[in-house]
Write a structure and sequence with these properties.
There is one protein chain. This protein is mainly alpha-helical and 313 residues long. Helix content is 48%, strand content 5%. A three-stranded antiparallel sheet has the order 1-2-3.
Length: 313
């Protein structure tokens, strides 16, 4: 029997790729998040447009044969991203945005090598920009979260904000949520099965008060297949942009500086639970982090001690 590695190699040799468009299509098929496919393809088009000196709107994937790309081309693209402002904003791209675009090119060329379409990855040695760590800026205080909840009068919206905070769910996971995913647990608590990033599932407990509030939203004749958080029109699941709008508006009402996003509530969940003594492994499990190092960032973003506190005043 072939090992998994041998199977992957055998499969890669069977890939039928004749041009850039076909390579990009196969590469995108390996990305689990279909929501990101458009962004990845746009990054590739930016790269092709830069090399051919063409506008993004006029670029076609097959305008460039990726087999002709050199190390110099990739480095020139990285330099261009760092020194030239974005067309829409007139401001230089953030380090995070530049890193994402370069990472997309590295991934595409690496995949081209894997399936033997490319002889080498011209982007292999290109370093990714290191973005500033702004995690601490995106962690709300407990008072700010509670104020957002208290000032949200709409019952559905208030439950949504609480759900994001208490479960640490991602926006995409909330959009997939159905009543069949929510079940009772012991001591009048609830539990929810979340399915999201990386096609992974995890089960998270829901506090008693929130569980009761959620059940009050459910229609008596619901079969379990309908969305937990529905739009007001047609009963369809809330779209990501609507979730962002609800959370952003709640942040404004609470007087919080900056545009509060749903992910800020996830960050706050991690920080607040660690502050209150939750084991870091439990927080990792609740949030669905693959690496414990990712979860540990929240402790570093809000340290409890510093050597500067030991210096004379």
């Amino acid at each position: 029997m072939l090992t998994r590695y041998q199977q992957e190699v055998a499969t890669s040799k069977m890939a039928d790729v004749a041009n850039t468009a076909q390579l990009v299509a196969l590469w995108l098929a390996t990305k689990r998040s279909k929501e990101s496919h458009r962004a990845y393809e746009t990054d590739v088009r930016y790269f092709i447009g830069f090399l051919l000196q063409s506008s993004l709107e006029s670029v076609r994937l097959n305008d460039l044969d990726l087999r002709t790309v050199t190390i110099n081309d990739v480095q020139a693209f990285a330099d261009f991203l760092e020194t030239h402002p974005a067309a829409k904003t007139g401001k230089p791209l953030s380090a995070a945005s530049r890193a994402r675009r370069i990472a997309a090119i590295k991934s595409l060329l690496n995949y081209g090598c894997k399936i033997k379409y490319l002889q080498f990855n011209a982007a292999a040695d290109t370093l990714l920009p290191k973005p500033k760590d702004t995690l601490a800026e995106r962690i709300l205080s407990e008072t700010e979260v509670m104020t957002m909840v208290a000032l949200t009068s709409n019952v559905r919206d208030r439950c949504l904000i609480q759900f994001l905070y208490y479960t640490g769910a991602r926006v995409g996971e909330v959009g997939l949520l159905r009543w069949a995913d929510i079940r009772p647990n012991r001591d009048d608590q609830g539990q929810v099965s979340l399915f999201g990033k990386g096609d992974k599932s995890r089960t998270v407990l829901i506090p008693k008060k929130l569980y009761s509030a959620l059940l009050a939203l459910r229609a008596a004749d619901d079969t379990g297949k309908s969305a937990v958080f529905k739009s007001r029109k047609g009963g369809e699941p809330l779209q990501p942009r609507h979730i962002w709008e609800i959370v952003g508006e709640a942040g404004q009402k609470a007087g919080i500086q900056g545009k509060v996003s749903p992910h800020w509530l996830r960050h706050s969940h991690a920080s607040h639970s660690l502050d209150r003594g939750a084991p870091v492994q439990l927080v990792q499990q609740t949030l669905g982090h693959t690496s414990l190092q990712t979860t540990s960032r929240y402790a570093h973003a809000k340290p409890s001690d510093s050597s500067g506190l030991y210096l004379p005043g």
